[in-house]
Specification:
With 409 residues, this protein is of the alpha/beta class. The protein is 37% helix and 21% strand. It folds into 2 domains: 3-62 and 362-408, Urease, subunit C, domain 1 (Roll), CATH 2.30.40.10; 64-353, TIM Barrel, CATH 3.20.20.140. The structure holds N-(iminomethyl)-L-glutamic acid and fe (iii) ion. Fe (iii) ion is lined by residues 68, 70, 238, 313. N-(iminomethyl)-L-glutamic acid (NIG) binds next to helix 3.
C-alpha cells in the first residue's frame, strides 16, 4: 500500500475543542487511505518507502466538506435575481409560481445527461478549492422519476469525479403544481412511494424537508422524517429560514443530524439542539443573496456548544454560490464568526452535520486521508482574502487528485 510523508508542514488539525488545532513544523504520514501518524518534525519517522512531500511550511487542512447543496438542477433563475433587485421578495416570487417550482419545471425537462453536464462545472469549481466531500440534495423533481433522476446524477458525479458525495432525499422541498391545495396528499406520495423507491435503489444517505410557510408545515415535515426513520435513514431539516415555525425543535427532538438556515431560531431553543447533538448548518450565501437582516443565534450556539457548520447551499435561487472559501469569508463578515470557526465549519462540524465526524473532518490518525495543501502560512488567510484560491494540491483517501509533486517542486 502506498505511503506519503508530508514534512515541514503547518497543520490545522481541527482536532481540538476550539481554534485551529495548529501544529507548526510538523509532519504527517499517510498509509493507504488513512492518516497513520502526525507529530513534530523532531519525531518524524524515517521515510522508508514513502513518497516524501516537502510542504515548505505551507498549510495543510482537512479536505473541505460542503454539507448542504442543491447543485443538481436545470436552468437558472437570473430573471428572479433581477426581480428581487427591483424589490420583489423571495417569498412573493415563490407564491407567484416562480422560485423552487420554476427550477422544478426546468429540471423535469432536462435529461439525466444534461443535468450531469450542467452540474459538472459546479462540482469542479468546489473541488478546485479543496472540497473532498459534498452533499447533494434532490428536491427539484418532486415526483418519483425525477427525484430518482436527480439522485442518480449525484451518484454519477461521485463515481466520475472521485470525491465523496452524500445523497440527500428532499422530496418535501416544495409543493409541485399538480398537487396545488393538496399538500397532505403530496406528503403521502413522498412517504409511501417516492422515498421508499429512492431508498430501495440505494440512492438515499439522509432525508431532508423544507419547513416554512412557502413549503410544508411542521406536522407535514414530521411525517416525512418519521417515515425516514422507519426506514433507518438519518434526518435533517431546512427550518426557521424565513420565520420561526418550530421546525428546528421538532427535528432536533427526533435526533436530526442537523438543522439548516435557522436565522429565525429563538435563542431559547438552542439548548435543545445541544442536548440532542444536532449540528447547526449556517448558510451565509442565502443570507447574503436574500439580503436577510435576521442573524442566526450565533452567541447562543457558541455558548451551548452546538457544532456550527457552514455550507454553500449552492442552488439557482437563494444561493448561486460555488465557493466554500467565499462562504468562510461571508460567515466571518456577515455573522462575525472567527476564521477558526469558519474552518471548523467547513471541516469537522460539516462532517458532524453529515454524520461522518468519525471518518473525516480533521487531521487525526485513523481518519481518511483527505488533505488539502494551501499556499498560505496561516489559516486565517483562507477566510480573509476574497477571490484568491491558494489551493495547490488535494489528496483524497490517500491519493493525489492533482499533480501535486510538480506543484511542490
Ligand atoms: O436552501 N430553502 C429552501 N431551499 C433552498 C432554496 C432553493 C431554491 O430557491 O431553489 C435553500 O435556500
Ligand atoms: Fe438549502
Amino acid at each position: 500500500m502506498s505511503q506519503t510523508l508530508f514534512i515541514n508542514a503547518t497543520l490545522a488539525c481541527v482536532d481540538t475543542d476550539s481554534g485551529y488545532g495548529l501544529r507548526e513544523d510538523a509532519a504527517l504520514l499517510v498509509d493507504g487511505d488513512r492518516i497513520a501518524w502526525r507529530g513534530p518534525m523532531s519525531e518524524c519517522p524515517s521515510a522508508g518507502g514513502a513518497e516524501v512531500y516537502d510542504c515548505k511550511q505551507r498549510l495543510l487542512t482537512p479536505g473541505l466538506i460542503d454539507c448542504h447543496t442543491h447543485l443538481v438542477y436545470g436552468g437558472d433563475r437570473a430573471d428572479e435575481f433581477e426581480q428581487r433587485l427591483e424589490g420583489v421578495s423571495y417569498a412573493d416570487i415563490a407564491a407567484g409560481g416562480g422560485g423552487i417550482v420554476s427550477t422544478v419545471n426546468a429540471t423535469r425537462a432536462a435529461s439525466a445527461d444534461a443535468l450531469f453536464d450542467q452540474a459538472l462545472p459546479r462540482v469542479q469549481q468546489l473541488m478546485s478549492e479543496g472540497v473532498t466531500t459534498l452533499e447533494i440534495k434532490s428536491g427539484y423533481g418532486l415526483d418519483c422519476a425525477n427525484e430518482i433522476k436527480m439522485l442518480r446524477v449525484a451518484a454519477l458525479l461521485e463515481k466520475e469525479l472521485g470525491l465523496r458525495v452524500q445523497k440527500t432525499f428532499l422530496g418535501a422541498h416544495a409543493l409541485p403544481p399538480e398537487y396545488s391545495g393538496r399538500g397532505d396528499d403530496y406528503i403521502s406520495l413522498v412517504c409511501d412511494e417516492m422515498l421508499p423507491q429512492a431508498h430501495a435503489e440505494g440512492l438515499v444517505d439522509a432525508v431532508d424537508v423544507f419547513i416554512e410557510s412557502i413549503a410544508f408545515s411542521v406536522e407535514q415535515g414530521e411525517r416525512v422524517l418519521a417515515r425516514a426513520q422507519q426506514l433507518g435513514l438519518p434526518i435533517k431539516a431546512h427550518v426557521e429560514q424565513l420565520s420561526d415555525l418550530g421546525g428546528a425543535v421538532m427535528a432536533a427532538r427526533r435526533g436530526a443530524l442537523s438543522v439548516d438556515h435557522i436565522e429565525y431560531l429563538n435563542s431559547d431553543d438552542v439548548a435543545l439542539l445541544a442536548r440532542n447533538r444536532c449540528a447547526a448548518v449556517l448558510l451565509p450565501g442565502a443570507f447574503y443573496v436574500l439580503r436577510e437582516q435576521q442573524l442566526p443565534p450565533l452567541q447562543a450556539l457558541r455558548e451551548q456548544g452546538v457544532a456550527i457548520a457552514l455550507a454553500s447551499d449552492a442552488n439557482p435561487g437563494s444561493s448561486p454560490l460555488y465557493s466554500l472559501l467565499l462562504v468562510m469569508n461571508l460567515a466571518c463578515t456577515l455573522f462575525r464568526m472567527t476564521p477558526a470557526e469558519a474552518l471548523r465549519g467547513v471541516t469537522l462540524n460539516a462532517a458532524s452535520a453529515l454524520g461522518l465526524a468519525r471518518e473525516i473532518g480533521s487531521l487525526e490518525a485513523g481518519k481518511q486521508a483527505d488533505i488539502v495543501v494551501w499556499d498560505v502560512e496561516r489559516p486565517a488567510l483562507l477566510s480573509y482574502r476574497i477571490g484568491i484560491n491558494p489551493c495547490v494540491a488535494v489528496m483524497q483517501a490517500g491519493k493525489w487528485r492533482t499533480s501535486a509533486r510538480q506543484v511542490a517542486a
